[in-house]
Amino acid sequence: MPERGKPDSGSNPRMLRPRMPTSELRRGSGELRSASRPLEKPILVLDGLRTTFDTDDGLLKAVDGVSYTLRRGMTLGLVGESGCGKSVTNLSIMRLVPSPPGRIVGGQILFHGEDLLKKTEDEMRAIRGRQISMIFQDPMTSLNPYLRVSRQITEVLELHLGLGRTAARARALELLELCGIPDAAARLDDYPHQFSGGMRQRVMIAMALACRPEVLLADEPTTALDVTIQAQILDLIKKMQSEMGTAVILVTHDLGVVAGMADEVAVMYAGRIVEHASARDLFKSPQHPYTQALLNSVPRLDQKGRLKPVEGQPPDMARLGPECAFRPRCEHADERCAVYPPVFETRHATAAKPGGRETAAAQPHRVACWRADVRPGDARAPGAAAPAAAMEPK
Ligand SMILES: Nc1ncnc2c1ncn2[C@@H]1O[C@H](COP(=O)(O)OP(=O)(O)O)[C@@H](O)[C@H]1O
Ligand code: SF4
Ligand SMILES: [Mg+2]
């Protein structure tokens, strides 16, 4: 049993201090934006999503019970090491998991209350690109090598927004310029292979933003780009959010970007969300040893010396046992960790503002770790009532 209400070594305030500039953190926390903003209706709700791959080594549980709620205008940062299931979660939402070997085997993906897993392929085609767009890690995934860039963007605009040819072409040019393509007018009729990798990324971002989607799944959107263009693209996404209320899932390795953009952060490990909180709470008091290790591995302005990488290797996803998946790398592990922990609500969530209207800052701080600093009286303590469903694999 965890010692409820008693901070453990994982709550050491020294460890909890984030390494990001505090100005960034304050922005990232959504402190000013969220605290006074009433919660919007959910647009996208993932409920216990499970996606597997048949591999030579057996069944690989790439996404194992992922749940979250995305509301209009909000940004959820999804972070975690390579291979933990971030992209497969996004591909599942788009229903683009390659099958075989992939299969969505459980859960629901509710978009405006309707389960995308029950839609026909034709219905999904109408949703993709128009209402839910994805910026892929690999630009060639979404660009057709045989079509000129102009045609690829105008096609989307004509099909989904009903623009005429001339208007679509003008808008395509505007989008390429917004995404930082130099001499865009001259490049508009080039083919994808005539662009460099970074430029292709921008073309793809222009395509993803073309229809002003309600949900944007941005999977490492700026990893290949230099910092100036990265800032430009992130600004573009923010602008679209404030104008259109676009909800964004932002997958990134860059915790600085998360701090600057996200209202909430979900940390994934081995196919599951192991910690989920408002960005402010997560950076201020990370609870899961993996989150703490991630934060310790990024540079901090006020600290010199070497960074501490997350020790050890990510687990083999096809050979996960019943134990906590982080156990082999965790310096806090004890005998309880032989069983995968339930989800605890910690005492570190920022309280809701009085007045009855919930705010984003009232997002519960949840963590799947036996050593979590559990909120006093939390019914989700082990041995008590059923654990919280939010991160619990089904
Ligand atoms: N087409 C595939 N076939 C088999 N395994 C896959 C396939 N795509 C992804 N996976 C596996 O699913 C897991 C999650 O992958 P992914 O979501 O791409 O990770 P991330 O985006 O977090 O880096 C990984 O173990 C990966 O090897
Ligand atoms: S539950 Fe997992 S993360 Fe938490 S202390 Fe045990 S091994 Fe470490
Ligand atoms: Mg990925």
Care to describe what's here?
The chain is α/β, with parallel strands linked by helices and 394 residues long. It is 29% helix and 19% strand. The chain is built from 13 helices and twelve strands. The longest helix is centred in the middle third of the chain and has 18 residues, at 227-244. The two termini are 22 Å apart. Bound molecules: adenosine-5'-diphosphate (ADP), iron/sulfur cluster (SF4) and magnesium ion. Iron/sulfur cluster (SF4) binds at residues 288-289, 324, 326-327, 330, 332-333, 337, 341, 369-371.
Helix content: 25-40%
What is the beta-strand fraction?
Answer: 15-25%
Question: Could you tell me the number of beta strands?
Answer: 12
Radius of gyration from the CA trace? 21 Å
Counted by DSSP, the helix tally is 13
Q: Reading side by side through the largest sheet, how are the strands ordered?
A: 6-7-8-3-9-10-12-11
Q: What string, H for helix and E for strand, traces the elements in order?
A: HHHEEEHEEHEHHHHEHEHEEHHEE
Shape: globular
What hetero molecules are in the model?
adenosine-5'-diphosphate, iron/sulfur cluster, magnesium ion
Low-confidence stretches: 1-36, 352-361, 379-394
Oligomerization state of this entry? single chain
| Sheet having the most strands | 8 strands, mixed
